[in-house]
Amino acid sequence: MKRLSTDRRWLDDGRAMRVMRWIMAIMLFLTVLAAALGLSTWRATGALDAELSGRLTVQLVEDDRAATDRLIARLRSVPQVSRVAEVDRAHLAQLLEPWLGEAGLDADLPMPAMIDVDLSDPAAMGAVEQAVRQAAPLARIDRHATWMAPVRGFIATLAALAGGLVLLVAGATAAVVLLVTRAGLDTHADTIEVLHMLGSTDVQVARLFQRRIAFDTLTGGVVGTLAAAGFVSFLGTRLGALEAEVVQGVSLNTFDWAAIALLPIAFALMATLAARVAVLRTLRRRM
Q1: What is the pTM of this model?
Q2: Which of 65, 128, 155, 195 has fewest C-beta within 10 Å?
Q3: Which residues touch 16 (CB under 8 Å, ≥6 apart)?
Q4: Calpha distance 203→96 (Å, rounded)
Q5: Largest CA distance in the chain
Q6: Which pLDDT belongs to residue 245?
Q7: Nearest CA to 27 among 218, 207, 204?
Q8: 258: which residues sit within 8 A by CB, 6+ positions away?
Q9: CB-CB contact of 73 with 265 (8 Å)
Q10: For the chain (length 287 residues), average pLDDT per consecutive 10?
Q11: How far, CA to CA in Å, does 213 sit from each of 160, 195, 203, 284?
Q12: Helix 254-261 vs helix 202-242: crossing angle, to nearest 10
């Protein structure tokens, strides 16, 4: 602690250093938001794949009770099928109400038979479809993963975009550190010359800047991370209140929060390395 206080007196720029901390706070705030978006959407993609990969809906256009019962019995005989449930007419009428109005409640209105099927092994999808074709050749089979593919692709795109934003902000942070370090070298040129005259090496001078940059990055990073974590938690409660299946998987677990908590340390290490490289290169050019 005493050495850190001494280093800060040597390299104290007052307002410039305070600005540096605020810049790092903003950088970490944006990084945590992007990381939270990337981790949650990536996890949601996995949850969506697991949820839809083994589900399909079979539609019988003809209103034939016997054919429907035969198909249900055939599906239940397949070992990989874990659940077979026919969608009742009342639910179908509710789904059609926005288009047909009260006409959808008419008992004489022909409606297709809809059968939801869940598989214990998604790899058996082909065998289940073959069983359906044998029992009802005119049946229509809809894989849930197929018609939800655009949603899955959009979520995966968001995850990739968030990962790119994290890398972009990290690169911008490194650039800011380089600029601040070089500005500090120019500002303290006389002090550095005195240190060299007293026997300090370039590596020792670089350590002064490393410690100061690491302290400012870590201080601002913690502030930005805490602010972003609070904002992400607030958004999580709002998403949970929606009670929509599509957004149920958009969440962070303990591992994700642990990774986010390590971001200020990772940025401090990156900033320290960038400051060291900048100082050593600059001092060697001046010699």
Answers
A1: 0.71
A2: 65
A3: 180, 183, 187
A4: 74
A5: 100
A6: 53
A7: 218
A8: none
A9: no
A10: 47 59 90 90 79 81 77 84 80 66 57 82 81 82 78 85 91 85 74 72 79 86 92 79 56 85 91 84 71
A11: 30, 19, 15, 20
A12: 150
Please choose, from the candidates 206, 222, 218, the residue with its C-alpha nearest in 3D space to the C-alpha of residue 268.
218
Look up residue 43 and give its two tokens: 């996890």
User: SS3 for 75-133, per residue?
Assistant: HHCCCCEEEEEECCHHHHHHHHHHHHHHHHHCCCCCCCEEEEEEECCHHHHHHHHHHHH
Unique residue bearing structure tokens 């040597």: 10
Residues in the chain, overall count: 287
How far apart (Å, rounded) are the C-alpha atoms in residues 113 and 177? 65
* Cβ-proximal residues to 44 (8 Å cutoff; 6+ apart), any chain: 155, 247, 249, 250, 251
199 by Cβ neighbours in 10 Å (0-12 / 13-18 / 19+) ranks as: exposed
In b/e form, how buried is each residue of 221-250, taking b as 16+ CB within 10 angstroms? bbbbbbbbbeebeeeeeeeeeeeeeeeebb
d(CA 287, CA 282) in angstroms, rounded, equals: 9
Rounded-to-integer distance, Cα 154 and Cα 217, Å:
34
The count of other CB atoms within 10 Å of the CB of residue 72 is 18
**Would you state the structure tokens that stand for residue 209, as one six-digit string?**
């800047």
